[in-house]
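ASSEMBLY PREDICTION REQUEST
Request ID: AP-0331
Submitted by: J.K., bench scientist
Number of chains: two
Total residues: 821
Priority: normal
Notes: Please return the full assembly, not individual chains.
Input sequences:
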Amino acid sequence: MRKLLIWLPLLLFLGFFGLFASGLLHPDDRIITSKLVGKSLPAFALPPAASDRPPLANTQLATGKPRLLNIFASWCVPCAAEAPQLMALKQAGVEIDAIAIRDARPDVDAFLKRYGNPYARIGLDARSEVQIALGSSGVPESFVIDGQGRIAYQHVGDIRADDVPMILDRLRSAQ
Amino acid sequence: MIAEAGLAALWLAASLALLQLALAAIGLAGGKSELLGAVRPVAVAQGVLTAIAFALLITLFLRSDMSVLLVATNSHSMKPWLYKFAGTWGNHEGSMLLWVTVMGVAGAAVALFERALRRETHMATLGGQAAISLGFYAFLLFASNPFARIDPPPADGQGLNPLLQDPGLAFHPPTLYLGYVGLSVAFSFAVGALLTRQVDAAFARAMRPWVLGAWILLTLGITAGSYWAYYELGWGGWWFWDPVENASLMPWLAATALLHSVTVLATRDALRAWTVMLAVIAFSMSMVGTFLVRSGILTSVHAFAVDPQRGTFILALLGIYIGGALALFGWRVGAVREGAPFELVSRETMLVVNNLLLSVILGLVLIGTLYPLMTEAFGHKVSVGAPYFDRIAGPIALTLMIVMILGPLTRWRRDRMREVTRRIAVPLAVGTIVLVSLAILAWGTIGILPFLGLVIALAVAVGSVAPLWKRNLRRTPLFTWGMVIAHLGCAVSLAGMACDSAFTVEKLVAARPGDVVETAGWTLRFKQILPVAGDNWTALQADMEASRGGGEPVLMHPQSRFFASPPTTTTEAALLTRWNGQLYVVLGQEADAGRWQLRIWWKPFVTLIWFGGFLIALGGAMALIGRERRGWLLKWRARKAEEAFA
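STATUS: Completed
Returned structure:
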């Protein structure tokens, strides 16, 4: 009994050690994915966010053709870094719509003027309500929407140059 | 040149640590006492070199030498000098260097000043200290060199995390580190005593000041950290049960248990194996805490995560030192004889109960902290929040407080139940009166834990000063005063926590400049919102006037601060402290055009929490000075007596 007690701390420690080691070997993926992937978009109708683009509602995203829904903000630095990739996607024939989060129209105009405007429609989500409904946790994020208005894929963070072919693949398979 | 000199000093210190370990090991194993004679000077030289390396890193930060990678990534040329200074340890590499420096300096102090230990145990302790340091030197030199250069150097640097730009936090980590590392000394003592099989009262008396010192600093560090989280994070709470907070709480719990058991060992020569075990556990908790904070395997609001590769290094160190010490414990503790026996009704028993309760809390906090990690190993994701910890730790902590009343009023070795009951009559009566009157006044309006907390706090307050009853206060030893003050501090903190959770009033409004908000008897006039600029930030600041009753209005300025480098927003809460509580105002986001979110709390007696923490540390300091002074006096008298006879 006493023998067991003496070695018990070491045994417990070895257990913890194993736990720590497994925690290190399998790092937690911190990316929070939306519970809506595979489901239809929630209903929303947003006012326009830019002076020269129409507003956005969920009904306009079920057009029979896959599209990209980009969530961005003029105050977001990674969004500026993402802009060239969105332009490239647009050039590849992708239709892109956007939701601007907690933004103001003059700021969005200035942002688009500076970094280019790949968007067909832009809705203004002034209080992040639609963003939350979409299960998005930050900017930028992008959703691949299939022809029936369902979310086929969620991309958390900015789209990097090497992500572009993957996004195009996703769009093709969302047909 | 400064960076290269720092790196050279670090390498030299590391090689001296290796030499120190070799001298102690060969000297002890081979019985070569001429080798042992060199251990102490080597330890002192090692301590001096680490101090030099650290001083050089501080110099690099103060001079904003952007050609050093660490300075470039963690400092900014425009930063106020205090934060350049604090930036030295506000990052991974710098804080590891601080760790090694404190260990080196503490080792030098053990070499120079330790007189109570037997020579063999002393040398084994210094060897153990060098062995621990070596692991951390290796970590610094091979995995996180603080003196690495960057080419080409950037012009300005990236800055320090703005959350960390606060005078409180500039000095909070070093305080905690001193505490952690003080526990490493206790750990080395325990290892030394196991190696030389000399676990006894003399060993405990030698270890006690180190444990006490470490415990005082941990107490101060935790208290300061809690206050910092309270006013800087802007959420109005004082404890989040965040992994980083738990990382400092767990060593504190273990150190508190150790502090009490080492007193039993020093005074009564009992609890030998248990005390050694606790010394190992206390330092283990420091290392586990460091590992959890730095490996990034747990998510925390404090964002201090570093890459898993470094986590692996710390994990390896953890395995070697803690696993090694526990194996040594299993192997050698059989040789440690049981100490003096004691009766069931005695102060020893009370202290054993105290130790058990502290250990249970420690275990539950550890499980709660690691639970997300455990479930993740089985593919589930959960997070354990404050409700678990409050519900689990709260009742046990309250039970512990009751034992705290009983312990000091019970005699060593044996006592009579009837005598003990007589001595606790007054605290018991106070507790009952408060219980009944509170029950009549407030039953149903406050939760059960805050309710019991208030009752027990008042009983503990009376119980903790009871040992002074009928004593000549001027002749009462300083360490008894220390115990009284520290226990009183616990009562004061508990009262603050109970009042905060029972009586806090919260109000969330969206207000326009010109609006008047009323809450908890306060009238807040929201006058205007203005941009202001500081040293390295700009902010939106609300001007408000707070008044209560017919009193003079006081200006309050909650801010939402924006730091350019790195780009971050922080909230600066405005606090108005009164004798009976704090008014706490946070400026939130603009709700819609012209209306601003304001979060207002009135927190009655919340300041008692930190005042109590300060009292606990003060009590510890008094006990430390009292014991040490007594030791010196005794030695001095003995020497005088010897001289008189000679």
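REVIEWER COMMENTS: Chain B touches chain A through 33 residues (CB under 8 Å).
SIGN-OFF: pending second reviewer
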